Amino acid sequence: MISRTALPLSLRVGALATAAASLLLTSCVSNTASTAVGANVAAKKIPAKVSPDTSLTVGAPDLKVALELSGQIDKVPFKVKWANISGGPQCSEAFRAHALDLCSAAEIPSINAHWTGLDTKLVAVKFRKDPIADPIYELGIAPGAHIKTLADLRGKKIAYSPGQAQGALVLRILKKARLTQQDVHLVELASTGDVYPTALGNGQVDAAPIADVNIKRYLTKYGRDGGHTIKHGLRDDPGHLWALTDSVGDAQKSAAVRELITFWARAQIWIDAHPKQWIDGYYVKDQGLSREDGEYLVKRSGRPDFPADWTDAIKRQQQTVDLLAKEQKHKKFDAGILFDRRYERVAADATAGERRTP
Question: Does 5 score more than 60 pLDDT?
Fold first, then answer.
């Protein structure tokens, strides 16, 4: 069941700081009646060349830094307006305002966009070569929660963000543990900043999926009290470039998107091959993290993988659609309509033969 118990002040302050994202999150999961038509752009030919006068507004701040560090940013053959936003809630809001053409996001935002009438396409797909060994998330366990295995989640309070990747992961974890929503207490809480680690430390929840440097910081702060993490053993690595359908439906913008995918894919390989430069230039100088935190994140990042065939990616996306439709009372749909397969081979072809770390 989903608990809507009032949160302590520290968590409410964090929620207020991200009010816009939280409002959008709510809209993404509450409106089940509206769905995007899913415009068919497959028959539209993408021009061989892009006009230098074409402009794309792109929400991928890390890509901008990667292109700067690798010396490639001035080689992009069209105009790019870099928006300092990324992720589902912010990108969805910008798409609706027609203030964004392309952004980076995980798998859930495009699904929720369809359910709320926002017509978008996934134009690039990236995974990790070993997603089980290098997961994005681990399940944070609160001190004193007495959870050592997924089966121990029965009867526990679990942080749940229905419109985010973390929410879908929680549902997958419950399914793997052969539990239902009725077997646990889902505490609806948007995962922003350190909200989940704080909720764990305060005992507001017993378990919560946490990622990246939050794992390291949580264990450092609460490990002595018994806070720990457990591996969920599930694939949680889908990453995408996500576009407004109106943008890829425009001839010149569609060509610009193709070129940007090429630069994006090569940038991921550059990051993989230049960890020291990435730590210094992005994590330390751009994000303000310590070098130790940057090194930790690089070790957790895994190796990039760009499939030339999206069949399996679409199959996994369909499984996610079906799971969310069942658990969140949405209408099922064909996940294939979310993917613009005109771009299917672009990233894989762009990185063929690119130098990788040993």
Answer: no
